[in-house]
Amino acid sequence: YGHSNQLRQARAMGDYLIVGVHTDEEIAKHKGPPVFTQEERYKMVQAIKWVDEIAPGAPYVTTLETLDKYNCDFCVHGDDITLTIDGKDTYEEVKTAGRYRECKRTQGVSTTDLVGRMLLMTKAHHSNIDEDLDYRKHTDNFGKGPKGHSPWTGVSQFLQTSQKIIQFASGKEPQPGDTIIYVAGAFDLFHIGHVDFLEKVHQLAESPYIIAGLHFDQEVNRYKGKNYPIMNIHERTLSVLACRYVSEVVIGAPYAVTADLLDHFKVTLVCHGMTEVVPDKDGSDPYEEPKRRGIFQLVDSGSNLTTDLIVQRIIKNRLEFEARNQKKEAKELAVLEAMKRLEEEKH
């Protein structure tokens, strides 16, 4: 949702947003191993509702040539630094030409922090569990170079506001003639498996209005175990709202899809993917009511990617990631030092 928030801000600066997505090869060269394949990433970015078009295989260093090729007036990046493999600012050329704009980085989330949560197996990131000191100690070591803390790679707390939810929400009410479809789940680490599922559900109706019910952290932990969900309810809400197929989100939906819920939202269809449905606390089927009404449908996303698999990919890459984050932090700290020196020289 940090990436989505950047795309939202960029889209607000103009009329048409083209997003350049790098190949696996480019990322491996400059940053380290990507978690998702380029095909997965192209599809993910395309599914974000502020994106008009993607430019696959975009070069890591944005040049004026690239901007002209896609008829772009300017490019936008967050206010964190991106450096090439040899430590140069990747946006130097477009900045000099005055075709660069900056947007605010989303506080409180970074890929580094999410990777840390996956590797540490604590539940300290859930929405109402006290901060675990052990977790703090680990996150401080994770992605931190020997010399201190870069503000870009470090870990900070995400603070949800109503403003952020409003910015992400579509604000569209269901219209007469809309098919109101309800889907529920954890939607943790919102990924291509979720996108494929929602896209398939979206295709089930002429004018679909999809409501996604998100379970609270403790509920997800009950049926998923370990330290799931990796992202807490606030983070999952924004991730799902950013998807172009979703019209509305129920924050903390009941695990059992009740008659009340179906009547309240005037639901015509309830869909679930091919993943296992764990019984409710009392052993009952959470989809009993929609099944009784004959409005329940299983939808095959055609994707086999799960949150579990992503975590496995990360653990497999763990050592490479840790090396990557320490290198990244060291590069960022070097730039900060240089910036500080420049400031001092000015005075």
Automatic annotation (TrEMBL):
GO MF term list: ethanolamine-phosphate cytidylyltransferase activity
Any one GO CC term of the record: cytoplasm
Domain named Cytidyltransferase-like: residues: 1-115, 183-273
The protein's name: ethanolamine-phosphate cytidylyltransferase
SUPFAM superfamilies: Nucleotidylyl transferase
Coiled-coil intervals, chain numbering: 316-345
Sorted UniProt keywords: Coiled coil, Lipid biosynthesis, Lipid metabolism, Nucleotidyltransferase, Phospholipid biosynthesis, Phospholipid metabolism, Transferase
One of the Pfam families matching this protein, by short name: CTP_transf_like
Superkingdom of source: Eukaryota
Organism name: Odontophorus gujanensis (marbled wood quail)
Gene from which this protein is expressed: Pcyt2
